Amino acid sequence: MADKHDPLELEWFKIGLAGPARRALVAAKLYKVSDLRKISLAELKALHGMGKSAIARIREIMDAKKIKFRP
Description:
Helix content is 48%, strand content 0%. The chain has a single domain, classed as DNA polymerase, domain 1 (Orthogonal Bundle), CATH 1.10.150. It is built from four helices and no strands. By secondary structure, the protein is mainly α. It starts with 9 loop residues before the first helix and ends in a 6-residue tail after the last helix. The mean pLDDT is 93.
């Protein structure tokens, strides 16, 4: 079952996020990188399952795509 992923987690899986971080994002109704415009960095950090490495990876991808968090 390890190779079965929730389709809503697919974009997060592709960028290399661990399961707890992927599930936290989906639970918050954030399904793709562009959805992160809807929340602040503080809100992202507050999600249960969101660790330092996941946040660092998300920020790297957001910078590459020129996407900013909500202030």
